[in-house]
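Review session, final week

We close the course with one last complete record, chosen because it touches almost every idea we covered. It is BTB domain-containing protein, a protein from Scleroderma citrinum Foug A with 183 residues. Go through it on your own first, then we will talk.
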Amino acid sequence: QYYLRDGNITFLAEGLLFRVHRYFFGREFKLSLIWEMVQTRSDHFAKFLWVWYNPRYTYSNQPKDTWLIILTLATPWGFDSMRELAVRQLERLSLGPIDKIALYMEHKIDGRLLIPSYIGLCKSPTLPSFDDGQRLTMKTVLRLAAARERALLRAIERGVVTPTCADVEDAELESIVSDVFEL
């Protein structure tokens, strides 16, 4: 699929040759990383190349795993524009708050994009489960607890008789989350 007759750079991944156009690699590519590319799975490298050679010129309808592969390859190779594309596409997908927070933390994606997920978890009637807490890290769970506590205190200050975190307006909760998570 990606062995193009007029290609002018060749890569070998898992015994499969890819011959593509050097132009794409010359824009952002760190030449010292060619060996790492050779060590990449061939199906992952094909998904990476798909971004440039997509016959339909559209990026919608791709699953989360495709964008994670692209993000995972684009980041260390220095393809910043492709990394930004992967993040934009992940933002369009419906990810649960736990999955999204864990994923974005793992890939060092801008934490400000997580504010709606943090707000959703703050408004939840319960804290994350033990298993979810392990995925989020202790620091994140403690910050969630701190944000929830601040929200409850604000609701009490306003005279709510049986306050919950859901009694705080989203804008106020966003301010609390931004402060607690230092965003």
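Two points worth writing down before the exam:
The beta strands are 9-13, 16-20.
The radius of gyration is 21 Å.
Good luck, everyone.
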